[in-house]
Amino acid sequence: MIYLVNKIVLCVLVVAATVSCRIHKLHLSDDERRYVDLTTFGFFKGGILDVKLVDFMMPSGPVYGEYGFTLDRTINKAISPYLAQSNSATCYLKESDTSILLNVTCKAKILHLYENRSSIPDTISTEEKCSYTMLPITKETRNGFDYYNTSFALYVATEMEEGLYNLYFNNCPNADSGTATAVNMIVEIYESNAGNFLSAGEMPLPALYSMMSLIFLTCAALWTFILRTSRQPVYRIHIIMCVLVYLKALSLAFHGINYHFIQTKGEHVTAWAILFYITHLLKGAVLFVTIVLVGTGWNFIKHILSDRDKKLFMIVIPLQVLANVAEIILAESEEGAAEHNAWRDIFVLVELLCCWAIMFPVV
Question: Which InterPro entries match (predicted)?
Answer without folding.
Answer: GOST_TM, GPR107/GPR108-like
